[in-house]
Amino acid sequence: MNSKGSTMVEEITIDDFLKIDLRIAKIKAALEVPDADKLVQLVLDVGECGEKTVFAGIKSAYSIEELNGKFVVLVNNLKPRKMKFGLSEGMILAAGPGGAEVFMISSDNGAHPGMRVK
Predict the structure, then answer these.
(1) CB neighbours (10 Å) of residue 61?
(2) pLDDT tens-digit profile of 61-71?
(3) What phi and psi, each to the nearest 5 degrees, are found at residue 44?
(4) What's the pLDDT at 5?
(5) Residues 6 or more apart from 98 whose CB is under 8 A from it?
(6) Of the four listed, 12, 41, 54, 109, which is most buried by Cβ atoms within 10 Å?
(7) How far does CA 18 lie from the centroid of its chain?
(8) What is the pTM of this model?
């Protein structure tokens, strides 16, 4: 632990950080995933980067209805991952311990799909 009481994690360089392509994405569709306790399927509009499908473990914290139209921050260049339910093409950023306490990271008004987060 450091002097402020938080757990230390491995430090990265600015070059490491710059490899991560964070983009603003708009949730075009949020879909139930049959037989999944935690996952929802999100179809994201990432502007000039196109559409991406992401499976996110946010089912306990958000209803399908409230997700549609929300803006989120997407890790756009994460290697796609084959899952039981389909291919996940990125990851949305969220905070919290899990379950009902998951809080998606979003943008201020004025940001638009595809905008780079730096």
Answers:
(1) 20
(2) 999 999 999 99
(3) -110, 135
(4) 55
(5) 57, 60
(6) 54
(7) 18
(8) 0.89
